[in-house]
Specification:
This protein is of the alpha/beta class. It folds into 2 domains: 12-41 and 282-385, Aspartate Aminotransferase, domain 1 (Alpha-Beta Complex); 47-280, Type I PLP-dependent aspartate aminotransferase-like (Major domain) (Aspartate Aminotransferase, domain 2), CATH 3.40.640. It has 14 helices and 14 strands. α7 (177-189) links the parallel β7 (159-165) and β8. Bound molecules: pyridoxal-5'-phosphate (PLP). Pyridoxal-5'-phosphate binds next to α4.
């Protein structure tokens, strides 16, 4: 297996189709949308090339081996026993939680979402004619936790579903077993189904293992829809292959039924990549995690030394840093400030809902040299912040 070279600077705008790199004019350093500036693992590329060279791309069956590989993986990593029939495939995790919102409860019901959070979760309840009920996570010194009393108090007679994000984008928590147990107990007691988006489950740093909430107990599994994907882990999000695990047959049929006629099947290249990634991508993933952690440490050290009024706590999981700019004295909106004056594109924390204002999300899954260049440019703008004017926020823009 060749040693992955995460330092390699790739020609990402080459095909003009990278959302991250091609949405802005040349010269901008994009550290925003959550994909990685790395080649996928060599076995994934090999499998795709081999499949492409076949030249026939008809409707695809999901490879039987893929279910087995996932089943074995969940048992090995989390001691979570699922049956092959519990697993089905979807073109996206966002698709999956939108299907869950349609499948559980009735129009007009409330769906709980903890904020700040990955912004498509805020829209999903409304897309299904449900009401999005936001509960704030508590933040202290950059550490986020849930106040269980507040969480429970937010549950009303019409609350049917809770959308959990674990590991959490953007606040970087990998929720621990005990807090997940308490959370599940509350949901079960109030008959609230859990839809757990665990797309970031493989990007966890030492000391913070991922716990799938459904793995805690059979009665929790029976009320949970879990969504996973190889997309973040192995950098194949453009191939649109995600995984749903629903162990209760009735709930599973309801979720699948919610997509009938609307949700397209997974394409053959997505299946090919998913199988190769989950089966053969382990060593690459180990190397990736070391590289990401070094990047993260570099970032935190740089920010502490050169932009000390921006605060950032080390994430437990994800390749996303959550920068608190509230006390940094930046003029106007921090995202616009760095976009305009540093030519670095980050995500505006405000798009993640209440509690996100004044924060930035920075994606550090890039070669170290890219990160260094971006931070250097940010530092230069930061040092001039007192003399720079606020940059207006355009009224209707794409979420960034
Ligand atoms: C928490 C979370 N869920 C879902 C997605 C996107 O999933 P998909 O591309 O499979 O719809 C992302 C992408 O950033 C994410 O961070």
């Amino acid at each position: 297996m060749p040693v992955p070279d995460f330092d390699q600077l790739l020609d990402l705008p080459r095909f003009g189709d990278s959302v991250k790199w091609c949405l802005f004019e040349e010269g901008m350093l994009p550290l925003w949308v959550a994909d990685m500036d790395f080649h996928s693992p060599a076995p994934v590329i090999r499998a795709l090339v081999e499949r492409a060279s076949h030249g026939v791309f008809g409707y695809a069956l999901s490879p039987g081996e893929l279910r087995q590989v996932i089943q074995e993986r969940l048992a090995r990593l989390y001691d979570w026993q699922v049956q092959e029939e519990d697993i089905f495939f979807l073109p996206g995790v966002v698709t999956g939680f939108n299907m869950a919102c349609h499948a559980v409860g009735k129009p007009g019901d409330e769906i709980l979402v903890e904020v700040p959070v990955y912004f498509p979760m805020l829209d999903a309840p409304g897309n299904a004619g449900r009401v999005c009920r936001m509960v704030s996570l508590l933040e202290e010194e950059g550490y986020y936790r849930r106040d269980e009393q507040t969480f429970e108090a937010a549950i009303g007679p019409r609350t049917s579903l809770f959308l959990l994000c674990n590991p959490h984008n953007p606040v970087g928590r990998a929720f621990g077993r005990a807090e997940l147990e308490r959370l599940a107990e509350i949901c079960l007691r109030h008959d609230v189904v859990i839809c757990s988006d665990e797309i970031h489950c493989d990007i966890v740093f030492p000391g913070h293992p991922h716990t799938p909430i459904a793995s805690l107990a059979p009665e929790i599994a029976a009320r949970t829809i879990t969504l996973l994907a190889p997309s973040k882990t192995f950098n194949v999000p453009g191939l649109s292959c995600s995984v749903a695990v629903v162990q209760d047959a009735d709930l599973r049929e309801r979720v699948r039924g919610a997509g009938a006629g609307l949700v397209s099947h997974v394409n053959v290249m997505g299946y090919t990549a998913a199988l190769a990634a989950y089966r053969d991508g382990g060593p690459w993933l180990e190397a990736l995690l070391r590289y990401l952690e070094d990047n993260c440490d570099y970032l935190l050290d740089y920010v502490a030394r050169h932009m000390p009024l921006i605060r950032c706590r080390k994430p437990e999981a994800t390749f996303l840093a959550w920068l608190d700019c509230r006390q940094a004295g930046l003029p106007g909106n921090p995202q616009r400030f760095f976009e305009e004056y540093a030519r670095v594109c980050l995500n505006d924390g405000a798009i993640f809902g209440p509690g996100g204002e004044g924060f930035l999300r920075l994606n550090f899954a890039c070669p170290r040299a890219t990160l260094q260049r971006a931070l250097e440019r940010m530092r230069q703008a930061y040092e001039r912040r007192a003399e720079l004017a606020p940059v207006p926020v355009p009224e209707a823009s794409e979420p960034k």
